[in-house]
Design brief:
- There is one protein chain.
- The chain is mostly helical.
- The chain has nine helices and no strands.
- Helix 3 packs antiparallel against helix 8.
């Protein structure tokens, strides 16, 4: 009986370690990188012309929001690349968990809605899509790293999983 229990524990599949190999992660990665490229092309192209046509106040908002957008996307791209490295076997999930502390998934939220409404539609769309991507990445991050913390909890102390969840919530 005890040997069956030990064999069962040794054969546990750690769900969080396999999420980066999922089709959902592949889609998220592709969508994220496509959004980074699309945003860069817009800001270097059509966005420049649209920014010049804005009044002074809206122009300042454009500059601020384009910087926030760029910062947000670079943080998201860093997270995605870090987890692709896990998928490719270039690092372990625990290494990624340590490295991800350098990535700020809550960085650079957009300004007030009334200011955003004065921006060109394409920039508004890019901001909205980046916020949607950020929310998806945050959920996946919580699933991957929250589950990893719980899976590493020593068996026997029933409070450890709860403490790990609390710790994960405050690290976001």
């Amino acid at each position: 009986m005890m040997s069956d229990q030990l064999q069962g524990e040794g054969a546990l599949v750690h769900f969080s370690e396999h999420l980066t190999n999922s089709a959902a992660f592949a889609t998220l990665f592709r969508d994220g990188m496509d959004l980074v490229e699309e945003t860069a092309a817009y800001l270097d192209g059509a966005g420049r012309g649209e920014a010049k046509a804005l009044d002074r106040s809206a122009s300042l908002t454009y500059a601020t929001e384009s910087m926030r957008l760029t910062t947000r996307l670079m943080q998201l791209a860093s997270w995605l690349l870090l987890h692709r490295a896990v998928k490719e076997g270039e690092m372990t999930l625990s290494q990624a968990n340590r490295e991800k502390t350098k990535v700020k998934l809550s960085a650079a939220d957009p300004g007030p809605a009334d200011a955003l409404e004065k921006l060109p539609e394409q920039l508004q769309d890019l901001i909205a899509r980046s916020m949607s991507l950020q929310e998806k990445v945050r959920r996946l991050d919580g699933t991957i790293h929250g589950a990893a913390a719980i899976e590493r909890a020593p068996i026997g102390n029933p409070l450890v999983p709860h403490l790990n969840r609390l710790k994960a919530a405050f690290e976001r």
